Amino acid sequence: MDSKELWKVLEEADLLASQGEVDRAIDRMAAEITGRLRDSRPLVLCVMNGGLIISGQLLPKLHFPLEIDYTQATRYGNETTGGGLTWKAMPQRDMAGRTVLIMDDILDEGVTLDSLARYCYGQGAQEVLLAVLVEKLHLRKVKPGMRADFSGLEVGDRFLFGYGLDYKGYWRNAPGIYAVKGL
Q: Which fold has domain 26-75+85-158?
C-alpha cells in the first residue's frame, strides 16, 4: 500500500471512539485492575505488537508492585483475516504460583488470548486474567461466552484500527478507535 491509499483508509473510516473516550476507558480499567490486583504482585504480560500502546498507557496508572514481560504471537500478520497462530517470542519470567495479567489490544475471536492463557497455566500460573482495550461483541469466540476480565470499550463486529490495532501493519498510532469502511 502506498501512503495515499493509507490516508484514504483513515479519511473514510468511522471513528468509533475518540482519543478522549479511549483515555477515559483506560483510566477506568486502571482503577478496576488496581482494585483487583493491588496486593497480588502480578506478572503483566504485554502481547506485542498490538498490546504495546494499551500497556504503555495503562501500566503507569497501576500503582502497585508488578513485574512486566512480553510475548509476541499473531494470527493476522499484515493481513485483514486471521490464520494460524504464529509464536514470535515467548515470555521469559517465571509464572509458577503467580497471577498473570495478559494485556492486548483486542479480544476478537479469542484464539490468541486463549492460547496465551493456556500457555501461562501450563507454566504454573495460579490465575490468568485478560485486559484488553477493545472487546468485540459477537458469537464467534473460541470459547462460548469468553470475555476479558478488564475491557475498555465494547464494539460491534467490524475491522478496527488505532491505539494498537492495525490495518495491514499501519495506523496502530491512530488517536482513537476506527472501523475500516466496508470491513
A: Rossmann fold (3.40.50)
